[in-house]
Structure prediction request, 686 residues.
Amino acid sequence: MVSIKDVARVAGVSDKTVSRVVNREPNVTADTMEKVRLAIDSLGYIPNLAARSIRSSRSNIIGIITDYISTTPYSGDIVRGIQDWAGVNARTVLLANTDGDLEREANVWRTFKAHQIDGVLYVAMYHRTVAPASGDVTIPTVLVNAHAEEGLSFSSIEPDDFGGSAALTQHLIELGHRRIGYIRLNPLLLGANERLDAFLVTARSSGIAESDMIIRLGMEGPIGREINYVYREAQSILSLSDRPTALVCGNDEMALQAYLAALSLGLRIPEDVTIAGFDDFKTVSLALKPELTTVALPYHDLGWQGAEMLNELVQGSSKRIERRILNCGLVVRKSSAARDRVV
Amino acid sequence: MVSIKDVARVAGVSDKTVSRVVNREPNVTADTMEKVRLAIDSLGYIPNLAARSIRSSRSNIIGIITDYISTTPYSGDIVRGIQDWAGVNARTVLLANTDGDLEREANVWRTFKAHQIDGVLYVAMYHRTVAPASGDVTIPTVLVNAHAEEGLSFSSIEPDDFGGSAALTQHLIELGHRRIGYIRLNPLLLGANERLDAFLVTARSSGIAESDMIIRLGMEGPIGREINYVYREAQSILSLSDRPTALVCGNDEMALQAYLAALSLGLRIPEDVTIAGFDDFKTVSLALKPELTTVALPYHDLGWQGAEMLNELVQGSSKRIERRILNCGLVVRKSSAARDRVV
DNA sequence: TTGTAGGCGTTATCAG
DNA sequence: CTGATAACGCCTACAA
Prediction:
């Protein structure tokens, strides 16, 4: 391993001078700098960050703690957003997974502490409340796609499920739909309730009668092992004699099942029924034909901006608890159409 | 920050003795150990891994380099497999993403080197050949879901696309299908060719005539920005007067489009046509009704075993280049049925 | 502008 | 079985 001393010897200067060049400190002549640069290149010197972190007790590492339960492919983009921020801001990312196991989580926090990391992004794979179990370890933390359980105080960044769902509902109403089916996500999901509430509030305020909102539960049971009624419920709703002209699904995966149900009944989308999802999970939303009208979750931005928030916390430029809510944009594609085309 | 010296003082021993206890070295009396343990707990001491790595020049960190291009949700399981191995084996995981940018990649390698990481898992998000651009940095490396381009020598671990596709084809033939459609993945994907080749070889060896294999290209163009013909091609194949009784798709996402095409033509799955996919991407394969017969890519195992291979390399217990191929298991669900039910 | 001395927290070495 | 001392690679503080 080539160290700062080797470089110093080759360049004919002291190790401190090399350190100055490497860290872009002032007060080095262009001439000296050049000599040092040359020596660095010829030796292939790379500073040892561990040694640096000992002295400066800042590691420039941020940690990500996730807790995927079973298959949640969606939110990898959050992690990518964090990585992108880290790449641009010369940070490195440590990644750990708790699997929802408390003992394992405590271990993760200790390991992170042992690595002297600057801060933690605590990432939930679906929008919900969390209770970080850091034990007696204290590290600046921001919750991403989650907020803290009652009594805990953490900064957080979350998607505006409510706003997104309201926009989607508004869109359908503007298309002339007055009788709308709704298949709910697992009620254990925070997003499930926000999305449903927004649907109800928006529909009511547009004068839609309760009897014209056909609400069904699409899935229930523990996350990752839920029982799924979506296909059956979609068929049931679409078989009603006074079938709604639009069907909103809790997420895109459910919309996929609604498509299959509609097609199996010989209904065309959107001529016979408008279908909408939520998430803009592109593997589904763009594979569906016609492509799916849905609401985009800002996963990448949750990660990126979460990293920014954490950075402010670490720098000490902001000490207060912040709860940031990110907009979820409506994505109109071909699965939604005006009601008058439907009649 | 509480250091080993603080613990030593409180326990009334030397710092080296504390070090022995922490590292489970032999030659410490149970009594001394107990005293030290107590001091550690009461102070909340956590060893500084940076300092340790300086002395021992082993960091117990492994690095993951990925290169996601656009949206590839599938293979997050590879990373999870690596994490799981790391959790069990007391390693920490550094994560970095190159975005396919060579300059950025060179930077990642340098950063990893600077962190003294023990080894690198170079992870491709879809099965293909790669050329790690590590510059003059040398770190033990294993390629995951990829193999090295001509002339480069790296150990690698890869899925057996060929075997999986052969098993799937065999399954269809055993069900009595003698005329089969096939929609190809983007030919740029390594898996695309292996899967198609296996299909052709297996079908031929079962005496299926070339004219009874209806091969179509489903997508082409640069990865992440391909043009997608799947829906159109599926409709075209299924509209043939001598329509095949089974349709194989390059992956599950394509199978989804085939479902939509079939249903739009009023065909029932599997009564009128058997459909099969590849990947077992559960968000799709289980959401489809009937659930999809497909082939499971062993993503989690690719990660886990890749980490094991890397560990052997790092330990020096194995110096030779190994290319390990992992089995892809056939997953039979309800979208495939015997041909005699079809007639 | 540059260099020297010392120390960060840990482990290796070797003496007791 | 235990401890003193040195050393890892770097940076801080201060002196030249």
User: Anything to note?
Assistant: The two ends of chain B are 76 Å apart (CA to CA). The first strand of chain B starts at residue 61 and ends at 66.
